[in-house]
Amino acid sequence: MITRRQFSGLMGLSAVTPGIATASDWPERPVSIVVPFAVGGATDVAARILAQELTQKFGQSFVVENKAGAAGNIGLEAVIRAPANGYTLAFGTMGSLTTNPHIYKDAKFNVERDLRPISQTFKVDHILVVNPKVPARNVAELVAYAKANPDKLTYGSAGTGSSVQMFAILLEMRTGIKMRHIPYKGSAPALADLLAGSIDLLMDSVPTSLSQIQAGKVRALALTSGIRNKRVPDVPTMKEAGVPDYDTAAWGSLMAPAGTPDAVIARLSEAVQEAYRKPAVQEKFAAQGMDAISSTPAQLASLIKRDTELWGRVVSEGKVRLE
């Protein structure tokens, strides 16, 4: 078996080694982008927008393949097992890359060891929304109410370990409150129960809850991100609402198997950044409620490291366990 160090040495021979891409000849055939979630979700839509741009850029098809299961782990494992030649890529997310490692202890891979960052691909702000019956018109009042009524407030999530739950636990950690978690199989049923008054609050994504906010059916209190969202310009950030050290959002990224040549990683990252400078691409993402955000591999690596540490603390302090 070739060790990682030996493989790195062989990378210098890639120009004459069959099956290993170089900057000059890659891509010579279609490239697969594995989305570790079902067709039609936000991650899938973002991947297809990007795939279209990369197809135009390189003159080869970039084909989205959906391999859902285990909160994204199945798709990532498939990419990690693929040849590190630039022809199989992963469309990872905040949850699959930085939260899952703390929850799925039996995962057969290590993100830092087995995957290489290419570029961030999108960002989605989440927002704290409450049922109108909750006696709080801002975060300060919500915190005061929660402290006066321990464990009375209930919050929904898209399932154990989902970003929706992570953002709620982070709120508990930053404010010292305690709420009861009600997990659902997705954000849609959680939002439905919020509207019905069966739960009190939800850390929903902005695009999912926007129409209900605009209709006055839920009350928006604060954004998770450190910058206000133009879709809800009057809603303050958590920091503005008085919650210290709270600045996070859900995001997506393009990744490759460890061992993928530096030249291919660089070309891909530059291509994503180039595509995202197009107003038309920005508009496509905005129409889906997402922000088109690109990065260098180093910037993405830093984001993954930061969030892996953050959500590790959240999983530990929140005692998040799969049922």
Polypeptide structure, described:
With 323 residues, the chain is an alpha/beta fold. It has two domains: 190 residues, Bordetella uptake gene, domain 1 (D-Maltodextrin-Binding Protein, domain 2), CATH 3.40.190.150; 98 residues, 3-Layer(aba) Sandwich (D-Maltodextrin-Binding Protein, domain 2), CATH 3.40.190.10. It is 41% helix and 18% strand. 45% of the residues are buried.
Descriptive terms for the model:
D-Maltodextrin-Binding Protein, domain 2, 12 helices, alpha/beta, five-stranded mixed sheet, 10 strands, 41% helix, 323 residues, disordered N terminus, 2 domains
Number of structural domains: 2
Head-to-tail CA distance between termini: 37 Å
* Oligomeric nature of the chains: single chain
- Average pLDDT metric: 92
- The CATH homology group name of the largest domain: Bordetella uptake gene, domain 1
How are the strands ordered across the major sheet? 2-1-3-10-4
Label the overall shape: globular
Number of strands: 10
Using the coordinates above, name the CATH class of the largest domain.
Answer: Alpha Beta
CATH architecture of the largest domain: 3-Layer(aba) Sandwich
Low-confidence stretches: 1-19
Structural class: alpha/beta
Main sheet overview: 5 strands, mixed
